[in-house]
Amino acid sequence: MRIDVVTIFPDYFTPLALSLLGKASATGLIEVRVHDLRAFTHDRHNTVDDTPYGGGPGMVMGPQPWGEALDSIAATNKDVRPVLVVPTPSGAVFDQGAAQAWTTDPWLVFACGRYEGIDARVAQHYVAASDWAGVREVGIGDYVLAGGEAATLVMVEAVARLLPGVVGNESSVTDDSFAAGSMAQLVEGPVYTKPQEWRGLPVPEVLLSGHHGQIADWRAGQARLRTAQMRPDLAAESATGQQGGRQV
Ligand code: 6GU
Asked: Strand pairing of 31-36 and 49-50?
């Protein structure tokens, strides 16, 4: 999968060279390219923002550098149509289902806005652009960040770790909290490793028993308990047979 990121803070993305994603880049499972939006300005001060039409607080990112940056990215491969992802708190919420669905996209381009956001005509233009595969305006939760950069890191990691070969142990991906099919819409219960007793606290007996059926039942029960305690919203969904089926 190819991933491009456009931002006024390219340094924000140095963590992509670390750990799991760094390895995935090094082995060619993903190809990440980070672009400085200011490289697509033409004035002395590399201006990317201006005052909002209609008035109001803050500044809005203008369409000109965005158009040039995105066009230049699309032009690097005329055989694949990229999807434009615009992180914004006013978008549909990105969840595990979205992460899974995006794994089949060959090329994602993230447009990281700052200030009060990007001039709305940018998304409008690329929705209708025939050399693009669509525009997805998405947020990562109900809180407001200073810009799309942190949200982009979150989404890139959530998608990339689902790509075949990125995580060494495939079942650590399929057994995740929220993974479709396994224990859909339940969070995972507690986990333990050695020593068998630590500071007077024992590992639950059943996990030492070697009875795989009992262990699986115990874990399923713990997952239900934990979900009821920590995520009553999810517990209510499973009780009503509802499934988060939003299209992001
Ligand atoms: Cl994608 N951007 C910003 N600025 N704030 C957010 C967000 C995105 N998702 C949740 N809050």
From this structure: unpaired
